[in-house]
Amino acid sequence: MGQGKPTDVTVREIRLTFEPIPYRAPLKFGGRTVSSGWMVSAEATVETQQGRHATGHGSMPVGNVWAWPSTTLEPDQTEKAMMEYSRRVAELYGSYPGYGHPMEIEFEVNAEYDHLARRVADSLGLGEALPPLAQLVAASPIDAAIHDAYGRMLKLNSFNVLSKQFCNYDLSHYLDSSFSGEYADKYTLREPVPSLPLYHLVGAIDPLTEEDVLSRPGDSLPVTLAEWIAADQLTHLKIKLAGDQLDWDVNRVLAIDSVASAAQTARNCTRWYYSCDFNEKCDSAAYVVEFLQRIQTANPAAFERIQYIEQPTSRNLSAADAPKMHEASTIKPVVIDEALISYESLLMARDQGYSGIALKACKGQTESILMAAAAQKYGMFLCVQDLTCPGPSFLHSCSLSAHIPGVAAVEGNARQYCPAANQKWARKLPGVFTVKNGKIDTSRLAGPGLGFQ
Predict the structure, then answer these.
(1) What is the pLDDT at residue 30?
(2) How far is it, in rounded angstroms, from Cα 359 to Cα 386?
(3) Contact 83/62 with Cβ under 8 angstroms?
(4) pLDDT digits (tens, 9 = 90+) for 275-318
(5) Using one digit for the tens of pLDDT, what is the confidence trace for 374-432?
(6) How many CB atoms lie within 10 A of CB 391?
(7) Cβ atoms 72, 94 nearer than 8 A
(8) Rounded to whole angstroms, how far apart are CA atoms 257 and 237?
(9) Closest residue by Cα to residue 302 from 266, 251, 343
(10) CATH no., domain 195-441
(11) What is the pLDDT of residue 408?
(12) pLDDT confidence of residue 400
């Protein structure tokens, strides 16, 4: 591991637990509906050669419906495979013999992910192995726990141990020579921003008005979009769209804008924003261009409120017919999400006209830091997206968002779809889980490790 540093650690033990996530309401996106899930939690113990040690934690939903939308396997099969993969990755890290910074350890262990994915598929009798995105998601709680443990050991925030003082290698080791002499501290903040706007999700089957409500859950939480806007004074709405029904998509945005305009007027709010997420369902960039043109023609104000477009076409950027986004990105920023699985994919997307990236804690702390650095160097639009992350996984996402310069807002939809899983942590850090004036308080995410105790 390079020349070695006294702060270098090895992984002594990884322990995993699995817990079901109760859903309050179903979430529909990209033609798929999710109404249940599992949380994977990791506890990692790291130790220096001098015997200094600490334990850290990481959590993430399995997220198989999003990370592995297989056409040959059922969701229960991909869910089981991803959970087994998490177990195997834990064993892989636990047997890692070297010492280093958490980013260096992940970079070396990551080289075994593809091989491990094939072994898991074979052991379960599956006809396909976990794709790269599913691998990253399944491994992410372990990577997070190691970063958390390392920071706790040093009694420093994980975003304050990314400099040459702690890292054996600069960013060129992970990316390319254009990053020679640069470390991740250049692309991260020493203190979290004090607050961030929260992007509220409007799912494809979420009710906009009382007329859309089929049934109300037995709690006091809002149900309609107008109720959510009034309760949390929302200023950012993420809209899930079909991607293969242009009239429906246009009308959905216009209907949301109508409801939002009335609700915002009632509270004297004059500025709010939308993001539009097609979850890869568009067959061409022309669809996106026509969608934007039709919104602009029908309602110029609604068009101006669109902040960015998220992953409109297939995550397979290497396909011979992969759509080029140059024209669409001259109208609005177009960001990759599902397609962002490596530095190579970021460069490929950039060549194909994408102008921004969506960071996700579920792709791993290491991967997120590297992609954030690359996006900033290339002047790309930055946002942080959610995997319906409750409790500590949401706090991890918020900490990431608050420590990356230029992030416009953070998405957090567990409060809508699985709020029960938030309750324990909401009592500890109510400011992060309580939306006021459309924002959450991120000022306290500055503690050791990932920033929350």
Answers:
(1) 79
(2) 9
(3) yes
(4) 999 999 999 999 999 999 999 999 999 999 999 999 999 999 99
(5) 999 999 999 999 999 999 999 999 999 999 999 989 999 999 999 999 999 999 999 99
(6) 23
(7) no
(8) 10
(9) 251
(10) 3.20.20.120
(11) 84
(12) 98
Q: Is 96 helix (H, G, I), strand (E, B) or coil?
A: coil
- How far apart CA 275 and CA 83 sit, in angstroms, is 31
- Paired tokens of 404: 């990356």
d(Cα 167, Cα 287) in Å, to the nearest integer? 45
Position 3 scores a pLDDT of 64
Tokens of 392: 């500590």
Domain ranges of the chain: 10-172, 195-441
10-172: CATH number: 3.30.390.10
Count CB atoms within 10 A of the CB of residue 43. Answer: 20
**Cβ-based neighbour number of residue 380 at 10 Å:** 21
**pLDDT for 32:** 86
User: Can you tell me the distance from the alpha carbon of 67 to that of 417, in angstroms, rounded to the nearest whole number?
Assistant: 18
Q: Which residue shows structure tokens 């938030």?
A: 422
Amino acid at 361: A
d(CA 242, CA 28): 10
Distance CA 274, CA 303 (A): 9
DSSP 315-351: S-TTSTTPPP-HHHHTTS-EEESTT-SSHHHHHHHHH
Q: Residue 411 and residue 310: Cα distance in Å, rounded?
A: 13
The CA distance from 369 to 249, in Å, is: 33
Torsion region of 216: left, alpha or beta (phi above 0 gives left; psi -120 to 50 gives alpha): beta
**Cα(199)–Cα(207) distance, integer angstroms:** 17
Residue spans of the chain under pLDDT 70:
1-3
- Which tokens is 73 given? 């396997």
Residue 136 DSSP one-character state: H
CA distance 359 to 381: 11
Residue 161 burial (CB count, 10 A) = 23
Q: Cα separation of 350 and 423, whole Å?
A: 40
Q: Which two tokens stand for residue 382?
A: 């930055």
User: Residue 120, Cα to own-chain centre: how many angstroms?
Assistant: 24
Q: How many other C-beta atoms are found inside a 10 Å radius of the C-beta of residue 219?
A: 10
Cβ neighbours for 9, distance < 8 A, ≥ 6 positions apart: 46, 47, 48, 99, 100, 101, 102, 105, 149, 150, 153
pLDDT for residue 236: 98
The answer, as to whether pTM is greater than 0.85, is yes
